[in-house]
Specification:
The protein is an alpha/beta fold. The protein has two domains: 147 residues, NAD(P)-binding Rossmann-like Domain (Rossmann fold), CATH 3.40.50.720; 94 residues, N-(1-d-carboxylethyl)-l-norvaline Dehydrogenase, domain 2 (Orthogonal Bundle). Helices cover 48% and strands 13% of the residues. The chain is built from nine helices and eight strands. An eight-stranded mixed beta sheet has the order 3-2-1-4-5-6-7-8, sandwiched between helices. The protein is elongated and about 60 Å long. The structure holds NADP nicotinamide-adenine-dinucleotide phosphate. The site of NADP nicotinamide-adenine-dinucleotide phosphate has 19 residues, from helix 1. NADP nicotinamide-adenine-dinucleotide phosphate binds next to helix 1.
Length: 267
């Protein structure tokens, strides 16, 4: 088994393989990265390619591409990228007789090797070593699907974290501490998560009738959040961008509809 890339994640993957009893060879561009205990450092890439399976975990596909070779027998790609990049790599693998699994890691390095670490994988259902890293979840035949799920879920994370930081900054202008605010946000997020199945169904059926909260009232709320942010001296780019997005749905005639109708603009 070989691992290319000894960054934070690649090192965690190599350690997990060693713990599972695999014979592990590692390769990294720079010499300064430590060789995980129990693993062997490859002298060059060709030596790393002698393994039955090569796991890659590099910064991007762009830096990974020139390293790949048809001397690889089976490639388990855990470098993050776009669906298109995953599909192109799958095609390259097919053309060069390399067995290919495309995966994305929905966990941080510290979780690798524990049951909570989900690894979405696509294309080939044979997933080789993924069990050693956590919980493999097969998402479908199209090699781009794992990357698609990855980016969708990361988008939820980035938007949520930015919303939280906006709240910390805004309430912080009046001395509210993160310790006071955070439990409220955590409760709020749990309640919001419960609303998602219904919202998902609304987007599917394109039926946005609501007795709960109309888009009009939410556009007003976002205008207030953007204005309050400015008046309290914090950045208003995020609430303003959300206001503008929601307002476009309102202008399309969804003012009395639910928030789910914003999908009509996003789609
Ligand atoms: N860290 C996380 O929480 C996390 C979570 C999920 C997915 N991932 C994914 O895992 C992958 C690796 O992330 P990471 O956190 O391990 O990043 P990292 O610590 O920054 O490591 C990056 C790795 O890429 C290598 N690299 C960068 N440019 C290169 C080049 N031009 N040629 C050859 N090697 C090059 C680095 O080698 P050098 O040591 O020589 O610079 C290093 O091994 C990324 O695709 C990331 O999206 C990470």
């Amino acid at each position: 088994m070989s691992v290319l890339g000894l960054g934070r994640m690649g090192s965690a993957l190599a350690c997990a393989l060693v713990k599972k009893g695999y014979d592990v060879t590692v390769w990294n561009r720079s010499a300064d990265k430590q060789t995980p205990a129990g693993a062997r450092r490859a002298g060059d890439l060709d030596e790393a390619f002698e393994a039955d399976v090569v796991v890659t975990c590099l910064a991007t596909y762009e830096v990974q591409r020139p390293l790949l070779s048809k001397n690889i027998k089976a490639l388990v790609n855990l470098t993050s990228g776009t669906p298109e990049e995953a599909r192109v790599t799958a095609e390259w693998a097919r053309d060069n007789g390399v067995e290919y699994v495309d995966g994305v890691i929905m966990a941080v390095p510290q979780q690798i090797g524990t049951p909570g670490a989900r690894i979405f994988f696509a294309g080939n259902e044979e997933h080789h070593v993924l069990d050693a890293f956590g919980e493999p979840v097969y998402v479908g035949q199209d090699a781009g699907l794992a990357a698609l799920y990855d980016l969708g879920l990361l988008g939820v994370m980035w938007a949520t974290f930015a919303g939280y930081l906006q709240a910390v900054a805004l309430t912080g202008t009046e001395g509210v501490t993160p310790q006071q605010l955070t439990p409220m946000v955590a409760d709020w997020l749990r309640e919001l998560a419960e609303m998602l199945p219904e919202m998902g169904e609304e987007t599917q059926h394109r039926d946005y009738e609501t007795e709960v909260s109309a888009l009009d009232i939410n556009v007003s709320g976002l205008r207030m959040l953007a204005e309050a942010s400015r008046r309290q001296g914090v950045d208003s780019a995020l609430p303003q961008a959300l206001h503008d997005l929601y307002q476009r749905a309102q202008q399309k005639g969804h003012g009395t509809h639910s928030i789910a109708s914003v999908i009509e603009v996003i789609r």
